[in-house]
Specification:
Blueprint: H1 22-32, H2 47-56, E1 61-65, E2 74-75, E3 90-99, H3 110-113, E4 118-120, H4 128-133, E5 137-139, H5 145-154, E6 159-163, H6 167-175, E7 181-183, E8 189-198, H7 199-204, H8 206-218, H9 222-233
Parallel strand pairs: 4-5, 4-6
Antiparallel strand pairs: 1-8, 2-8, 3-6, 3-7, 3-8
Length: 235
């Protein structure tokens, strides 16, 4: 994506900075260590154009979250029965941040509590459609976590959805708010993310693509490792 969302994606616009972000580092590692024998050419696009570009074949690969359905032009890992392989995915947990002054009990079930309320979510997040399908009201106008937390503090949303890739990273972020914003203990949902390929590219390079999906399965904690590295270089 062409938006600055540290630590996953850094910088704005078309140019890819160095360092590029934890998610880009993961993609590079997956490509280089699974038999492609060449570094990936990185193309930055607005969030809404990523899936469209993949379906059209303008790009060969992009991260793609769980969807109600997938176009035939998109290739995802499959199990022996031909279903999307949920094991060969990046697994993630979504939690909710709330105002400490609301004094919600630790036993709060966010999936039930936020029905009829508004959840702030990052613009273009792959999980937003799934949250809406679950009957939740999502405000995804803000482009990053910090802007969503400001909405929360101002009372414009009742909670903020955030990925729990590295718990220590989220804890460090919350320290900046001096106890005014806290995390609900119970997760909202568990999600999955794949590196999806254009189907024509997959048919041309099936062995390399399958090897990449298997590499991701074997290195499930790698994204968290990269996130931690970026955390260490933050001022």
């Amino acid at each position: 994506m062409d938006q600055n969302r540290p630590p996953y994606w850094l910088g704005e616009g078309e140019q890819v900075p160095e360092p590029p972000g934890a998610a880009v580092d993961l993609i590079r590692s997956a490509v280089m260590e699974s038999g492609f024998n060449c570094p990936p050419a990185l193309v930055r696009l607005p969030v809404a154009r990523l899936r469209v570009a993949l379906e059209a074949g303008d790009i060969d690969m992009t991260p793609l979250g769980e969807q109600p359905s997938y176009a035939q032009s998109i290739a995802l890992p499959r199990d022996r029965d031909g279903n999307v392989d949920r094991n060969r995915a990046l697994h993630n947990t979504l939690v909710v941040l709330v105002r400490a002054r609301d004094r919600l009990p630790a036993s709060t079930n966010p999936g039930e509590y936020f029905r009829g309320k508004v959840l702030g979510a990052t613009q273009g997040s792959s999980s937003n459609a799934r949250l809406r399908e679950a009957g939740l009201t999502v405000d995804d106008g803000a482009r990053d976590l910090e802007r969503n937390i400001e909405k929360l503090k101002l009372g414009r949303v009742d909670g903020v959805v955030v990925s729990l890739v590295k718990p220590e990273h989220l804890a460090a972020t919350l320290k900046r708010y001096r106890g005014a914003v806290v995390q609900l203990p119970q997760p909202l949902i568990n999600t999955r993310l794949w590196l999806a390929f254009n189907a024509n590219y997959y048919r041309a390079h099936p062995e390399q693509v399958e090897a990449l999906w298997s590499w991701l399965d074997a290195h499930r904690g790698h994204l968290g490792t990269f996130v931690q590295r970026y955390r260490k270089i933050e001022p």
